[in-house]
Amino acid sequence: MAGKRIPDLDFLRGIAIIGVLFRHSAWDNNFARAGWAGVDLFFVLSGFLVSGLLFHEFKKSGKVRIGRFLIRRAFKIYPTFYIFLIAAFTFYPWVNGHPFPVSNMLSEILFIQTYLQGCFIHTWSLAIEEHFYLLLSLSVFIVLSVNSLENRRLMISMLVSSIILVIAMRLQYIYAHRNDLYLAIFYTHLRMDGLLLGVLLSYLIHFKEGFTQYINRHKTVFLLAGIVLISPLFYVKAGSIFFNTIGFNIVHLGFAALVAYAAQGNLVGRFTRFLPAGYLIRIIAYVGVYSYSIYVWHLLLSDFIEKVLHLKTGGVLYLGVTISVGILLSMAIEQVFLKIRDRNFA
Q1: Torsion of CA 106, 43, 200, 283, to 10 degrees
Q2: How far, in Å, CA of 245 to CA of 183, rounded?
Q3: Cα dist. 180→173, 175, 211, 212 in Å?
Q4: Quick check: 298 and 287 in contact, CB under 8 A?
Q5: What radius of gyration, in Å, describes the C-alpha atoms of the chain?
C-alpha cells in the first residue's frame, strides 16, 4: 500500500473533510450535526496510513529510518500550516482590529494548542496528529531496539492496552466533569485512541498472517458493521455523555471497519460504473486527495466570505470556495513541497 494512492481511502478522506465543512457552516441537518466526527475519521485513517508507512518499510528492508520519516512528515505538514498561520495572523487583526495574544500564537506555532489556548477552533486536531507522529516514532524506535516489532502477541497487547488506557483516562475526566451539560474534549492523551486503533488495524494487516484474507472473505460484514456502528452520529448529540464515554469508541470501531474495507479497494471501483453516483464518488475521492489543505484553510476562507464579502457561509458558495481554493492552495504549496520531499527524501 505504501507509495500508492487507494481511491477508496481518498473517498473516506473526502467524506471526512466534507463533513467538517458542513459542521463549520450555517447548515443545520443530520450530516452537518454529524460532521464533527470527520476529525475522528481522519484520526483512524492517519493512524492506519502513517504507521503503515513504517511497517511497510520494515517488511521491505528490515529497518525503519525514523529521521527520514519525520522529515517527510514535516514536508507534508509544516509548509501549509505555517503559511496558513502567517496569513491568519495578518488577516484577523485587520478585520477584528486587534492581534491575537502572543501566548495563543506561540501555542499554535509550537503545536501545543490541545493544552494551551490557541487562536483557532480547528487546529487542535493537527496538534494531536503532530504528537502522534512523535509518539509513534519513539515507540517504533524502542520496539525495534529490542527486536520486538514482529512479536505479534506483544505488539497487539501493547496497542490494545494503550487504547484501553486512553479510554480509562477519558472516562475519569468525564466523571470529574459529570455535571457539565456539554463537554468538548481536545487533550491529546484523551483523544489518541482513534489513532491507536488505526495503528492496530495496520499492524494486523501487515503482520497478522491471513488477516487481509479474512477481511476479503467478510468484506460485506465489515461494510455493514461500519455503517451500523457510525449510525449514532446522526441522531445523538455531539458532546453528550454517550459520545464522550462509549460513543467515541463505537464510532471509532465503525470507522476502522470502513477503513479495513476501503483498504482492499472494494468501494470506489464497484460503484463508479453506476452514473451519476459514480461521478459523485470520484469527485469526493478527488476532494479527499486535497483534504489536508482544505481542512487547514477552510475557516479562514469562511471568515473571509463573511467578514469581507459579507455573505453567509451556509450555501453552495461556502462549500465551493473552501474546496476549490483549498485545492488550489494545495497545488501551490503542499504539492510543491511534496515534490521537493520526494526528490530529496524518496
Answers
A1: -140
A2: 11
A3: 11, 10, 42, 43
A4: no
A5: 20
Q: What is the pLDDT of residues 144-178, one digit of tens each?
A: 999 999 999 999 999 999 999 999 999 999 989 88
State yes or no: cis peptide before 79, omega within 30 of 0. no
Burial of 325 from C-beta contacts in 10 A (0-12 / 13-18 / 19+): middle
DSSP-based three-state secondary structure for 179: coil
DSSP state of 196: H
pLDDT in tens, 181-202: 777 889 999 999 999 999 999 9
With residues binned 3-state (H G I as helix, E B as strand, rest as coil), the percentages for the chain, rounded to 5, are: 75, 0, 25
Cα(12)–Cα(250) distance, integer angstroms: 18
Crossing angle between the packed helical segments 7-23 and 291-307, to the nearest 10 degrees:
20
Residue of 251, 195, 204 lying closest to 227 (CA atoms)? 251
Q: Which pairs count as long-range contacts for 270-279, CB under 8 Å and 24+ apart, including other chains? A: none
DSSP 41-53: HHHHHHHHHHHHH
